[in-house]
Amino acid sequence: MFNLPLGTFIAFFPWPILFIGSAIVLYFIFKRQDEREEENNSKEETS
Amino acid sequence: MKTDVIVFVVYLVVLMIIGIWFTRKASKSSEHYLLGNRSIGPAVTAMTMQSSSMSGYMFMGGPALAFQHGWYALWYAIGDAGGAIVNLSVLGKRMRRLSEKLGALSPIEYLEKRYESPMVRVVGSIISIIFILAYVFAQFIAAGKALTQLTGFPYELAVVIGVSVITIYTVAGGYLAVVYTDFIQGIIMVLGVTGIAVLALNHIGLSELNASLAALDPTYLSIWGKDLAYYGQWGVIIGAILIYLIGYMGLPHVVVRHMSMKSTKTVKGAILWAATWNQLFIFIPYILGLIGIVLLPNLADPEMVIPQLTYQFFPGFLSALLLSAIMAAIMSTSDSLLMQAGTILSRDVYQRFINPNASEKKAILISRLCILAGGLIGIVIAIYEPPTVAALVIFSFGVLGNSFLVPYVASVYSKKANHIGTLCAMIGGAATNILWTLLNLESLTAVHPFLAGLIVSFIGMVIGSRFGKGPSDKIKQLIEEAKGKKALPAKIEKNIAHELSPEANNISEILADPSWSR
To answer: In angstroms, rounded to a whole number, what is the distance separating the alpha carbons of residues B21 and A40?
Structure first.
């Protein structure tokens, strides 16, 4: 691919996709954490 | 006057206006001046973190590395591209919470309060001041070199212009001026490199580039470097990746961005912004370095590959954009470093050890004077002795990373890590990196100085923490709180409520029974 040896292509090209993918996953994990934390806080306030 | 110089002058004026705009707000209190009153949102946090992290190295050192070693240089880019994601997800929320609970305004003050030892602050201040200043002086040299090359100004005049602007807006507007100018600079940097990349890759496509490189020397395409110089040296390659993948967690001027976030909710948005910006920006300068091998075979100074490429092949508006982008990278790092050096000198040295009773007004004045002094000394040093930018940046970066990475991570994850461990980690990590670099042990051992320093720092923390007093109960409690409240999954909570409801009903009936109350 792109006239590169296979080893070089595999070593360097997947990373941007992996990083963007992991950023999206982390976004949703943290979003869920934030929502739970907020729920918890509001429960504590009402009790 | 040439178009590029006019565009650049307008850009400098805009930066100064931002600095002056924030002057009044910054002067309200030390927390406003040093941390922007912990009010920074996700987009600005991400952009300031990344533009501060990406220095003049990205336009000079990185492309020069690719120009000299071929595709091997991309190992550094990989670590860099993932650095922000690791940094924000590992430290972001916990450090934001703990720093506020400890009432720390500087990253070194944070270490003293977390590890309950003034000695940690003394050692931390000494290491950070020396290497932050070395780092910032490298940026000033880069600013001078870039301006000289691009405008034709004499080197000395270029250094004075570049450094003066940085110093003026940082002194005036403090942390807020730094982060908002960084935001603008981050946008200019990404526009600059993507613009040049589109034109350069139009000129010579990626496949054609690799074919030309292979014709010149097939080892340019190897993951082991030109002439297979690093063949089988995984210790060097892992170090090259790790230095930027995790190294940012040890840089005081970067971790302070966690402390200044508006809330822990800022982290999730900042991760998305930073990850996207990184993938758009980081790989391109290295690719341009590779293009330079083919298009500029007789280039004398490899650090000038991007400016030379742009001015020779794409003159006009793009060269103006490039000048601004290079200066944006240099200035966004310099202002953060200068700000941090000033913060450490005023908050961790003056207010902590010289005049603990200084008023808010006096503390802010001292911070401003320290930043000004840093700028002035920087001008003199940059004019006096300009070494290569890349070597100085990698060295300072490595030493800072090796000193502080383990202490910062352990501060929020370990209840056993104590001040002895931290001192061992800081001193051991810094000393190892310095010796490894000065004695050139990398070529002897095939282990990167950063990897060696990291291992020693980690061992120092583990062994050192077995000696001396452990963290107090209060600190242990704060670390627990910094983890955040762990809510049970909704399903389990529902089941608990369901199982407890008969019992709760019985208790309610007993309490309602008048005979029981008598």
So the answer is: 40
Q: Are B275 and A19 in contact (CB under 8 A)?
A: yes
> Is residue B400 within 8 Å of B448, Cβ to Cβ?
no
- pLDDT at site B213: 94
Chain B contact for A42, CB < 8 A?
A: no
- The interface predicted TM-score (ipTM) is 0.93
Q: Which chain B residues touch A if contact means CB-CB below 8 Å?
A: 71, 74, 78, 81-82, 85, 89, 93, 206-208, 210-211, 214, 221-223, 264-265, 267-269, 271-272, 274-276, 278-279, 283, 484-485, 487
The phi-psi region of residue B54 (left if phi > 0; otherwise alpha if psi is between -120 and 50; otherwise beta) is beta
Residue of A19, A20, A27 with shortest CB distance to B268:
A27
| Residue type for position B261 | M
Reduced to 3 states, what is the DSSP secondary structure of residue B90? helix
Closest CA to B14 of B156, B177, B128: B177
| CATH 1.10.10.10 is held by the domain B3-29+41-474 | no
Separation between Cα atoms, residue B502 and residue B496, nearest integer Å: 11
Structure confidence at residue B503 as a pLDDT band (50, 70, 90): confident
Question: Which H helix or E strand runs over B493?
Answer: helix B490-512
> Considering the entire predicted model, what is its pTM?
0.86
pLDDT at B516 (0 to 100): 60
Domain assignments of chain B as residue spans, ordered by start: 3-29+41-474
Q: Do A4 and B221 touch (CB under 8 A)?
A: yes
Instruction: Note the pLDDT tens digit of each residue in B144-178.
Output: 877 787 778 888 888 888 889 889 999 998 999 99
